[in-house]
Automatic annotation (TrEMBL):
Regions annotated as coiled coil: none
Gene3D superfamilies: P-loop containing nucleotide triphosphate hydrolases
Membrane topology per record: Peripheral membrane protein
PANTHER family, A to Z: LINEARMYCIN RESISTANCE ATP-BINDING PROTEIN LNRL
UniProt entry keywords in alphabetical sequence: ATP-binding, Nucleotide-binding
One Pfam family cited in the UniProt record for this chain: ABC_tran
One example GO MF annotation: ATP binding
InterPro entries: AAA+_ATPase, ABC_transporter-like_ATP-bd, ABC_transporter-like_CS, DrrA, P-loop_NTPase
Span of domain ABC transporter: 2-233
SUPFAM superfamilies: P-loop containing nucleoside triphosphate hydrolases
Organism per entry: Planococcus dechangensis
Protein name as annotated: ATP-binding cassette domain-containing protein
Amino acid sequence: MLETDKLTKKFKDVVAVNHVSIELKEGESVGLLGPNGAGKSTAISLISTLMKPSSGDVRLNGKSVLKNPDELRRVLGVVPQKIALYEDLSAYENLKFFGRLYGLSGKKLEERISYVLELVGLADRKNELVKNYSGGMQRRVNLAAAMMHEPKVLIMDEPTVGIDPQSRNHLLETIRKLNHEEGMTVLYTSHYIEEVEKLCDRVYIMDHGKVIANGTKEELKAILSEQETVLIEFDQNYPQLFEKLGQLDGIQQATTEEHSLKLIIPKGTRLLGTLFHEAERYDAQIINVNVQTPTLEDVFLRLTGRTLRD
Ligand SMILES: Nc1ncnc2c1ncn2[C@@H]1O[C@H](COP(=O)(O)OP(=O)(O)OP(=O)(O)O)[C@@H](O)[C@H]1O
C-alpha cells in the first residue's frame, strides 16, 4: 500500500536517513524501532511528505507521491511527537478546527468529532481547555485530531513519550483496536520495545539512519535461535565479578542493570558451574537465575552491541 524506496535524507554532514526501504501492507501494524537519534522522526517526516528527501522515493499503491502528495495526505493521519494543538481552545474546538481544515462541516463534522472523542476516551471532558489537560490527555487529543479525516493509514511518532501510565495504556489500546477492529494500517515509532511487541506484527529496526533488520517478531527473534539469554540476579551490584563473568569464554553479550547481569550465550553452554564458582570467590549471593527466550531488546543488543536506552 505505502512504501519507501531507498529513502535518504542528508543534513550537511549527517545522513539522518540512509537508503531506508519500508513497506506497509494494508491492515498491517508495523513498528519502527530504534534509539533516540536513529532517524525515526526524519523517516516519518519524509514518508508523510512534510520533508523532501535527498534521494529515494515514497509510493502509494505503486505511484510516487513526491510530486503530487495530495492523495497521500488524504489517506494519511500523522500523529507528531510534539503536541500540535491550540492550547487556549477546548478539545472540541480544536477538533472542529481540524475537521474544517479537511473540509468537513455540519452534521458530518459533529458526528466525526463525537466519534474521535469517544475513541480516545475524552467525550466527557471535551469542553475543557487543552492547556489544562495532562500531557497524556493532550496526546490523546493529538491522535483524535489526526483521525478527523478518516485516514486509512496512521503514522505515529513516539506517541507515548513522557505520559502517565493510564493515558499510555489508553492510547495503546486505542491503536490496537483501530488496527484489529477497523483494519487501520499503522506505522508505530518507538524506542519502547514492549509497546512494539504488543502492537506490531512486523518490525523494522533502525540504527544510525539505516534499517539494520526487519521481519515479523518471530523472524527477528529467530536471529537468536541459537542463543539463550540468562538473567542472573544478585543481592547487590558486583562490578568486578560482573566484568569477569562477561568475559568468560563463549559469552556473546553481557549487560548489567542494577543488581542483575544479563548474558547471551550459545544454546547448551554449560555456564552454571563456573557462575556459582566465581560468585563464591567474590562472596556474592545469587538470588535467582533465569533462562529466558530472547526478546526484541536482545535482538537489538545482538545487532548493535548496545541497548535501546544507551
Ligand atoms: N533539521 C535537522 N538538521 C540537522 N540534523 C538533523 C535535523 N533533524 C534531525 N537531524 C539529525 O538526524 C539524526 C536523526 O534524528 P531523528 O530526530 O530523525 O532521530 P529519532 O530516531 O527520531 O530520534 P528522537 O526520538 O530523539 O527524535 C540525528 O543525528 C539528528 O541530530
